[in-house]
């Protein structure tokens, strides 16, 4: 199971009790990973971050510019704004900042989660996260 659905299930299960912070770490050895990161953030500008995130996981490795634009159309995004964000690298500073943070923390795996400082590398089940979160919340 991809991390996106599990993360959404966790957020919904703990309303107002936890905070999700997402950082981008596009693989430097994967074609189009940087562009895909830009696409999720551009979709997020239009309120469809998770929809684009999930679609990219399903449609990978078809993550070139033309495919990303077709996904934006499929999601009902304003394609002109989306394309402009891709072409101008609107979120380049954010992505660069996320990469620098990952490097400073010696992180090289995705996904990596932190729950009150406890590092969890890789995809995990909802039950795994629930057990850890419940312990940290004292439930």
Could you give the distance between the termini?
26 Å
Report the CATH C-level class: Alpha Beta
What kind of sheet is the major sheet? 2 strands, antiparallel
Poorly predicted regions:
none
Helix content: 55-70%
Helix vs. strand class? mainly alpha
Characterization of this structure:
This protein has 139 residues and is mostly helical. The chain has one domain (3-130): Glutaredoxin, CATH 3.40.30. Helix content is 58%, strand content 6%. It is built from seven helices and two strands, in the order ααααααββα. It has helices at residues 3-13, 33-45, 49-59, 65-74, 79-88, 92-104, 126-137, and strands spanning 112-115, 118-121. Strands 1-2 form a two-stranded antiparallel ribbon. Strand 1 (112-115) and strand 2 (118-121) form a beta hairpin. Helix 2 packs antiparallel against helix 3, helix 2 (33-45) crosses helix 5 and helix 4 runs antiparallel to helix 5 (79-88). The longest helix is centred in the first third of the chain and has 13 residues, at 33-45. The two termini are 26 Å apart. The relative contact order is 0.16.
List keywords for this structure.
139 residues; Glutaredoxin; 58% helix
Provide the fold topology.
Elements: H1 3-13, H2 33-45, H3 49-59, H4 65-74, H5 79-88, H6 92-104, E1 112-115, E2 118-121, H7 126-137
Antiparallel strand pairs: 1-2
Helix pairs in contact: 2-3, 2-5, 4-5
Offer a concise description of the structure.
This protein is mainly α and about 140 residues long.
